[in-house]
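Lecture notes, continued. The same structure-token format from the folding unit now serves as the input rather than the output. Read the line below as a description of shape only.
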């Protein structure tokens, strides 16, 4: 009578992929929560911008359509900021820690770890919208139908993708100090030129032409269209998809380059 001996399988390999991804997500979320200043900055800045720069403008706040569009614009900035700082400065900071090197030597593949980063950034993007929604409900005349509200919730995930990839490209290719500076230098010009802080209707012609080729403008137009029902630029979706493809290539190159530098 013969018996079959099974080779020992490392414990991490027995866990489902989704379980590992959730474990990384929870760990990275808790790491962020332990730094209250990071949480406050991520969640309050867009809300404060709405409170101090938009709410005092009575003409805008009295118009439900204009109020909704203004909140949608700042919501776009909240998504951009959460994704780029989480995956830009955050990834670079994690790479500088000895624990990150230890995690990368474990037998589990890098897929769950990267998925955890993406889910963590997406979670913070949703949380950053909470103050905006509360201020909008309490202090403005903005309105959303249930269908548009569901569309906006789904759109957040779609809009977050290119800025997550941009953040990863920065975070995996630079040191902590450089990544923080580059993230700030990229985020705010993209936000201003994308019509996130002021409506693109007030842009001069040359700036409007440049703006329509940017991922921030495409994201802004799509979110405003979903939340208000006002028809946006027909080029918005193709521009966002094109930037997603370009930034995906950059992010993959940055991840592979980082692995080659540290483990060759």
């Amino acid at each position: 009578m013969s018996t079959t001996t099974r080779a020992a399988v490392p414990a991490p390999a027995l866990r489902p992929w989704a379980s590992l991804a959730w474990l990384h997500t929870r760990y990275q979320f808790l790491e962020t929560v332990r730094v209250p200043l990071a949480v406050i900055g991520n969640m309050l800045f867009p809300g404060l911008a709405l409170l101090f720069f938009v709410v005092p403008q009575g003409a805008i706040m009295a118009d439900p359509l204009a109020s909704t569009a203004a909140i949608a614009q700042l919501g776009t900035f909240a998504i951009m900021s959460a994704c780029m700082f989480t995956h830009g400065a955050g990834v670079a900071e994690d790479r500088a820690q000895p624990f990150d090197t230890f995690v990368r030597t474990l037998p589990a593949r890098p897929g769950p770890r990267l998925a955890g980063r993406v889910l963590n950034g997406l979670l913070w993007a949703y949380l950053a919208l909470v103050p905006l929604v509360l201020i909008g409900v309490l202090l403005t005349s903005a309105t959303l139908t249930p269908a548009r509200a569901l569309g906006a919730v789904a759109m957040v995930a779609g809009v977050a993708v290119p800025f997550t990839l941009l953040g990863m490209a920065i975070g995996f290719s630079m040191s902590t100090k450089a990544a923080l500076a580059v993230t700030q230098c990229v985020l705010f010009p993209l936000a201003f030129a994308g019509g996130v802080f002021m409506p693109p209707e007030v842009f001069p012609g040359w700036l409007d032409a440049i703006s329509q080729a940017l991922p921030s403008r495409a994201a802004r137009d799509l979110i405003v269209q979903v939340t208000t029902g006002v028809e946006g630029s027909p080029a918005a979706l193709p521009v966002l998809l094109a930037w997603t493809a370009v930034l995906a290539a950059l992010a993959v190159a940055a991840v592979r380059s980082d692995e080659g530098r540290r483990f060759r």
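Point for the exam: Residues 64-95 form the longest helix (32 residues).
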